[in-house]
Design brief:
- The protein is mainly alpha-helical and 96 residues long.
- It is built from 3 helices and no strands.
- The protein has one domain.
- Helices cover 77% and strands 0% of the residues.
- Helix 2 packs antiparallel against helix 3.
Length: 96
């Protein structure tokens, strides 16, 4: 069994430099993408429910999966929002 050499700090610094060259997206971009994904999930569920309500040929299990996916996504978004507000309030209460 042959064990290769351990990479030193220089190898880690080189990989870190290439990662720094790419600009990181901000919190606002991340939040915007998350809201956009949530909106697309909601639109998909609404379109399937409307198609079923108007009598179009839609499988019931597809509609139920879309509605349940929307429910889970909304629950996750609400939980994340509540945790963010809770963290903000905790930081606000800190004494300097």
């Amino acid at each position: 069994m042959v064990v290769g050499p351990i990479q030193g700090v220089g190898a880690v610094a080189q990989t870190g430099a290439s990662a720094v060259a790419k600009p990181a997206s901000g919190f606002a971009d991340l939040l915007g993408k998350a809201v956009g994904q949530l909106q697309s999930i909601t639109d998909n569920a609404d379109s399937k429910v409307n198609a079923m309500a108007t009598g179009q040929d839609v499988d019931l299990h597809d509609v139920m999966l879309a509605v349940e996916t929307e429910s889970l996504a909304m629950s996750l978004a609400t939980t994340v929002r509540n945790k963010a507000v809770e963290a903000y309030q905790e930081v606000f209460r800190m004494q300097m």
